[in-house]
Amino acid sequence: MLRTTSLNLSRNFIRNFNQHLVRIAEYQEQVSSGKKLNRPSDNPSDAVVALNIRSYRSKIEQYLRNIEDGQLRLNLAENALNDIEDVTVRARDIALMGVNSTVNDADRQGMAIEVNQLLEHLLTLANQKTTDGYLFGGTQTEAAPFDVVRNKSGEIESVAPHGDISGKLVRYVGPDNAVTVSADTENLLYGDQNLFQTLIDLRDALRSGDQDKINEALGSLNELHDRILGELSEIGSKSQYLQDRKNELDMESFEYLERLSDLEDADLTESLIFLQQEEIAYQAALAMGAEILRNSMVNFMK
């Protein structure tokens, strides 16, 4: 009977002793790593939640990268459209002077030269490159978006899209939340009425002194200017939306990071206290083990 009791005491001692060692190892790891969740087995339910948080934060980071890229593209488009607006305003001023009956033919020839320079500048703006394509090329990246036909003097006779440039660049900033980040050039640079052709018509009308054609060009320039302003307003709205969305995602990411910290990060002060308590208990268990062993030996000798 005594031997059975001693055996049970020994088993209980070994079990408790091992538990102390396990807990000491856990707290030592928490202190050294700063984490209380070092592997899924530490807390399976919290580990699943932490994994889901990390997965969604990874998506948030991608959305933020998309926003950054979208903001850059919209800024480039805005700058280019501002330059195109300057071209339009100057061409409109020239057209207003051209319809004045007091302007002589020599003056109109000089105006035509300036319009031709505006036309060349417009072509440069329209074929502007970006790091991975063309600003006004839509989804087409292989070649400049606009082809030119020139006359024997080297002046532009016509401008046409190089292939299909109607594709829209979009960036996802959330689940099922896509924002178009390319400029809508269809109503400005190609189509039945566009800025290229209007400048060509104005240049040629100034050279020929055709007042009716100059007036037609003036009307087109007024309409096209309104379209440019509308597109600039649209870009401004998109840029503001992307900034607002970025602020939302930054806050959401921070909140998830705090939640992740609650799940994974150890309270070092608390861990040190528990470690000290376990080490004291461990020492007490060693002393108790020595006593059990001594009593067992005495009982055995009896």
Describe this protein with a few key phrases:
mainly alpha, two-stranded antiparallel sheet, elongated, f41 fragment of flagellin, N-terminal domain, 302 residues
Overview of this structure, please?
This protein is mostly helical and 302 residues long. It has 2 domains: 2-36 and 266-301; 62-257, f41 fragment of flagellin, N-terminal domain (Up-down Bundle), CATH 1.20.1330. It is built from 7 helices and 6 strands. The strands form 3 sheets. The protein has a two-stranded antiparallel ribbon with strand order 1-2. The protein has a two-stranded antiparallel sheet with strand order 3-4. β3 (146-150) and β4 form a beta hairpin.
Helix-strand blueprint:
Elements: H1 2-33, H2 44-98, H3 105-126, E1 129-130, E2 133-134, E3 146-150, E4 156-161, E5 170-172, E6 178-180, H4 186-189, H5 195-208, H6 211-264, H7 268-301
Helix pairs in contact: 1-7, 2-3, 2-5, 2-6, 3-5, 5-6
Counting helices, strands and paired strands, the structural category is mainly alpha
Give a count of the beta strands, DSSP E runs of length 2 or more: 6
Secondary-structure element pattern, one letter each: HHHEEEEEEHHHH
Percentage of residues assigned to helices: over 70%
What is shown here, in short?
The protein has 302 residues and is mostly helical.
